[in-house]
Specification:
The complex is a heterodimer of chains A (274) and B (479). Chain A is an alpha/beta fold. Chain A has 15 helices and eight strands. Chain A starts with 11 loop residues before the first helix and ends with a helix. Chain B folds into three domains: 1-34 and 316-395, no CATH class; 44-301, Rossmann fold, CATH 3.40.50; 405-477, no CATH class. Helices cover 54% and strands 11% of the residues of chain B. In chain B, α16 packs antiparallel against α17 (352-360) and α16 (339-349) packs parallel to α19 (378-391). Classes of the chains: A alpha/beta (274), B alpha/beta (479). The interface between A and B is large, with 68 and 66 residues.
């Protein structure tokens, strides 16, 4: 097991490597929803990170960030999940997740469950320091600007609560999307109000969640946009699932990374074919 | 009065969601409150600074609670106020009723106080020989309707103007037949004015207790606290011990935060600091003044690491900005205090066993914490209650089973990946045209929404395949 728990422990050669932008070694945590439901978000993330000059590796022994256990109050379960996440990811320069919610879990909440375990607390803090949400990482750390992406139509943006409030992701996706040729932004009313997903909340309190997402859908439809974009698969699944249940096929939900990596035509084409 | 119970939360929620107009009626108030609060904060550049200051004042007073309580008592006694201590709500209610009975009171006027509701004072009066008269307009409405309050700032929020017209026509001696708000207010004023003047005892709550002077502060827009307190011979204050601040100078920044966060106003119409009974040269005022200091679980919260919740100044901003509150309303919580702050308080005032479901009725979106004028980390506190509830095994067994099974898989990544792959195959069986309308074990989701069809295989499966192909190519190239 590696003893390295902070940047202070780096060898000089490592530090020099780190300063070289082209050598950012990124561990991608794809998240369980992307892994099972929408792998294209994971591949879009790799494409974007590589374009931004990172070397990307996806550790095979990854599972879930632990939010279902944490939000249910199962601290011991959360720790069990966190141990292996820390071990898998602590030796990268950066850890990146295509989800504000899962990134916030690692950045903010691991610390909470290791309050009484100093050794693991230090390791959790180090992991928190190197962990980033994908879209903010691309802009804030890599100063990345997408190039040559085109998509005709208009989009509206749903800011996921964890990304927006816990990690202050707001300008970054909009800035990158403004470079996409042919794509127009249509502001969403109550953009920062929760969509009612809330992880286990949406199944525990399905009917309250349904009322909340119903209102979100009304706001989304009122924009008359062609695409609903966001940075969290959970929220997108929730809103898209409600749109489809109500028979609204005129708007398609996509992860921002999919659009920025130029995968949208392929995804939309695939959808048409089915 | 029909009062929901906290332990019936699921049932209360179903009933609330079944009320067709409730959501719209709540929205009328909360949308306005949100907009006005945002404007007030934007027009008060030092808001963040005031918030930090407010938090510090509260934290300091809570930390030295014993000192300030003693100081408050000493100064209140010096003013001629009689100080009572109550460790439970029941005890506090009994003290108030005993004072009323000593004075052979028949009519008692009360200005709105959530603490009064918390200690069961309204109920205690209704079961007594005395008449209770609520003087706050919203409390007056719900008293006529026989409802419990549904919001801590607007207790009658769940009642539409149309409801109020009906109630006033039914109960007021000389009701107005116009539906204009000014006429409705006039009708209530006519009805209440005489009651103010003939009341035997006036009972108020307190927004702040000032330790250095023994004063108590009331904040209203209707002047009903002043009219409740001044004409009767006896004034009784009921206040939670967390209302303490060291001095007027400490109360003022909190007052500025309170009004802006509650209604978006810079200041309310009436802010009065009450200082004991009438002095020899005073033109009016009560001859006798009592203050009942109530603990009712507060020192226990302090001992259990929930001291941040004692900062709460009862502005209601957390419920105005809560997506869950906005859809189910205050009554569903089954407690005097609804919404995020209520879901933290009720387990302490009542018990976690009966009020743990409310702690889960939150999407952890963080909006309540964002708008809290004293930086209470409400989602963190709610989650810590969930952790206590988990340890005490209050969660329904099925929830525990699902969460634990998931955790068992998630801590074994190889098993997790294997089950994810099987999950995709399973979901594929139920997919039609890109969507899943129904699937076993997912009714929580599919009851209200469709589930997107997963791609052919998991990310990990596809990624490994690509990686292996690359390696093969590289080997061939090398050879």
């Amino acid at each position: 097991m590696s003893q390295k728990i902070s940047n202070a422990g780096r060898t000089p050669s490592n530090t020099i490597e780190c300063l070289n932008i082209s050598e950012k070694k990124v561990g991608l945590f794809v998240t369980c929803l992307v892994n099972t439901m929408r792998p294209s978000i994971g591949f879009a993330s790799i494409t974007l990170l590589e374009q931004a000059g990172c070397t990307v590796e996806v550790p095979e022994l990854q599972s879930c960030c632990g939010q279902p256990a944490f939000n249910s109050g199962d601290d011991e379960g959360t720790r069990q999940i966190a141990y292996q996440t820390i071990k898998q990811f602590e030796n990268f320069d950066y850890v990146v997740l295509p989800s504000g919610s899962c990134a916030a879990m690692i950045k903010k909440n691991f610390i909470e469950v290791f309050k009484d375990q100093p050794e693991w607390l230090a390791r959790a803090k180090h992991l928190a320091d190197i962990t980033h949400e994908l879209l903010s990482f691309l802009v804030d750390v890599c100063q990345f600007e997408p190039n040559g992406i085109e998509l005709d139509g208009s989009y509206t943006y749903h800011d996921s609560c964890s990304g927006y409030r816990a990690l202050h992701v707001y300008e970054q996706p909009r800035k990158m999307l403004s470079t996409v040729k042919g794509l127009e932004h249509k502001p969403l009313n109550n953009h920062s109000e929760c969509c009612g997903f809330g992880g286990t909340f949406c199944v525990k309190y399905s009917d309250i969640s349904n009322e909340i997402v119903g209102e979100k859908v009304e706001n989304v439809l009122a924009t008359e946009a062609d695409y609903l974009l966001g940075g969290d698969m959970g929220c997108l699944m929730n809103i898209a699932g409600k749109l489809n249940r109500e028979g609204h096929k005129e708007i398609t939900a996509l992860h921002t990374a999919e659009v920025l990596a130029g995968l949208a035509p392929q995804i939309l084409g695939g959808k048409d074919a089915s | 009065m029909r009062v929901n119970k906290p332990e019936d939360f699921y049932k209360n929620v179903s009933e609330a969601l079944a009320q067709p107009d409730l959501k719209m009626i709540i929205r009328r108030t909360t949308d306005k409150a949100e907009t006005k609060r945002a404007e007030a904060v934007a027009n008060f550049p030092e808001f963040e600074n005031a918030r930090t200051q407010g938090q510090k004042v509260k934290d300091h007073t809570i930390k030295y609670m014993d000192h300030y309580l003693a100081e408050f008592e000493k100064n209140a006694l010096a003013q001629g106020t009689i100080v009572h201590w109550a460790s439970t709500g029941e005890e506090a209610s009994k003290i108030v009723l005993d004072i009323c009975r000593q004075h052979k009171a028949k009519k008692v006027t009360r200005s709105k106080s959530m603490l009064g509701e918390e200690i069961g004072l309204t109920h205690a009066f209704d079961n007594s020989e005395m008449e209770r008269i609520e003087t706050d307009l919203a409390e007056h409405i719900i008293q006529l309707a026989g409802d419990p309050p549904s919001h801590i700032v607007w207790p009658a929020m769940h009642r539409s103007r149309e409801d109020v017209v009906k109630l006033f026509r039914e109960f007021h001696a000389d009701p107005t037949y116009s539906e204009e708000i000014t006429d409705l207010v006039r009708s209530a004023r006519r009805d209440l004015r005489n009651k103010f003047l003939t009341s035997d005892i006036g009972i108020s709550g307190s927004n702040f207790l000032l330790a250095d002077s023994g004063s108590s502060c009331t904040v209203t827009n209707e002047g009903n606290a002043e009219l409740t307190i001044t004409p009767p011979k006896v004034h009784i204050v009921t206040a939670g011990i967390e209302k303490l601040v060291p001095s007027m100078a400490h109360a003022v920044p909190l007052l500025r935060l309170l009004t802006r966060s509650a209604t978006g106003a810079e200041i309310t119409q009436y802010n009065t600091f009450h200082n004991g009974p009438k002095r020899p040269n005073d033109a009016d005022g009560p001859e006798e003044c009592h203050i009942v200091l109530v603990d009712n679980g507060r020192t226990k919260m302090l001992a259990e690491g929930m001291e941040a919740m004692l900062r709460c100044i009862r502005c209601g901003a957390c419920m105005n900005h809560c997506v869950v509150y906005k859809h189910i309303g205050g009554h569903a919580y089954g407690s005097v205090y609804p919404g995020p702050m209520g879901s933290v308080l009720t387990p302490h005032l009542d018990s976690l066993e009966v009020a743990n479901k409310q702690t889960h009725a939150c999407t952890m979106n963080g909006r309540c914490e964002e708008v809290c004028p004293v930086n209470i980390p409400l989602p963190t506190l709610l989650r810590s209650l969930r952790a206590q509830s988990w340890d005490k095994k209050y969660e329904p067994l099925t929830n525990r089973f699902v969460v634990q099974s998931f955790a068992i898989m998630a801590k074994r990544p190889k098993l997790f990946q294997l089950l994810s792959s099987s999950g995709v195959i399973f979901m594929k069986v139920f997919s039609r045209k890109g969507w899943i309308k129904y699937m076993p074990f997912t009714s929580g989701w599919t009851r209200n929404r469709d589930l997107i069809e997963p791609e052919s295989t998991t990310f990990m499966h596809q990624y490994k395949k690509i990686k292996n192909e690359k390696m093969k190519k590289a080997k061939k190239g090398g050879a």
